[in-house]
Amino acid sequence: MRHVLLIPRALTVLGLLLLSPLAAMAEDKSRNLFDGKSIDDWDILEFGGSGEVEIVEGSLVINDGAELSGIKFKKPKLLPTMNYEVEIEARKTTGFDFFVALTFPFGDLETCATFVVGGWGGGVVGLSSIDNLDASENSTTEYMRFAEDEWQTIKLRVTENRIQGWVRGQEIFDVDTEGKKVSLRPGQIDMCAPFGVATFQTACEIRKFTITDLAKDKALSEDRQG
Predict the structure, then answer these.
(1) Average pLDDT, whole number, for the chain?
(2) pTM for this model (two decimals)
(3) Residue 29: what pLDDT?
(4) How far apart are the C-alpha atoms of 32 and 86, rounded to whole Å?
(5) How far apart are the first and last CA of the chain?
(6) Mind listing the pLDDT tens digit for each residue in 51-74?
(7) 3 state DSSP class of 149
(8) Any idea what DSSP says for residue 78?
(9) Crossing angle for the helix pair 214-225 and 9-28, nearest 10 degrees?
(10) Percentage of the chain lying above the pLDDT 70 cut
């Protein structure tokens, strides 16, 4: 005789209720900051002579300006300030300086730094600033070549007492921030704070822009293991 296990409706509903917080956490741990269709979540910054910001064939395009051009996230209080990762896929299309300068919060919305990719004539990668030294003169300084129209994967990880950065899968810096001053380089880049992206006399395209809350990611993993 074939036995059929009948699960009471109440238990089925209870199971769905227990699973739903995990499903919600899975959905909430990562956020897509650009959907390829609109930039409604971003303010276009006017530095003076800034390049136009537009969407072209699903990519966010920051055109080159007289100096800085860029955008800032409108609702930074909705984003984590500690224990998170940002991943960007971007490419330089014209210009000879940084095509991504990602300004981000470290611990709170008042304390920020910038992950510079392709600065100081196009080759410097690093973090501005550590102990008042910018990306061209501190321990994070690295030199890389960035060809036009070549997509780059850029990743930033911010955790307790540590900031890490990768380009093309290569770790560029791993900074132990304990006892160090984390700050922005003086100048108009502070208009990007607490969370924004800028270019300098250079145009770029961005096709992927995500942020992952590592605290939620860890909590989800622990709940699954439990």
Answers:
(1) 88
(2) 0.85
(3) 87
(4) 10
(5) 36
(6) 999 999 999 999 999 999 999 999
(7) coil
(8) G
(9) 150
(10) 83
Q: Can you tell me the mean pLDDT for 144-171?
A: 97
Which residue bears the tokens 């950065």? 165
Confidence of residue 216 (pLDDT cuts 50, 70, 90): confident
Q: How far apart are CA 29 and CA 220, in angstroms?
A: 9
Encode burial over 64-89: b for 16+ CB neighbours within 10 A, e otherwise.
bbebbbbbbbeebeebbbebbbbbbb
Question: What is the rounded distance in angstroms from the CA atom of residue 221 to the CA atom of residue 226?
Answer: 9
| C-alpha to C-alpha distances, 151 to 99, 128, 140, 168, 171, nearest whole angstrom | 11, 23, 22, 9, 17
Kindly give, in sequence order, each residue whose CB lies less than 8 Å from that of residue 15, ignoring residues fewer than 6 positions away.
Answer: none
Sign, Cα dihedral of 144, 148, 153, 154: positive
> What value does the mean pLDDT take over residues 157-164?
97
Asked if 90 contacts 154 with a C-beta cutoff of 8 angstroms, the reply is: yes
Report which DSSP code applies to 130: B
* 168 closest CA partner among 195, 146, 149, 148: 146
Total residue length of the chain: 226
Burial degree of 158 (CB within 10 A; 0-12, 13-18, 19+): buried
Which residues in 21-99 belong to E strands, given as ranges? 30-32, 42-45, 53-56, 59-62, 68-73, 84-95
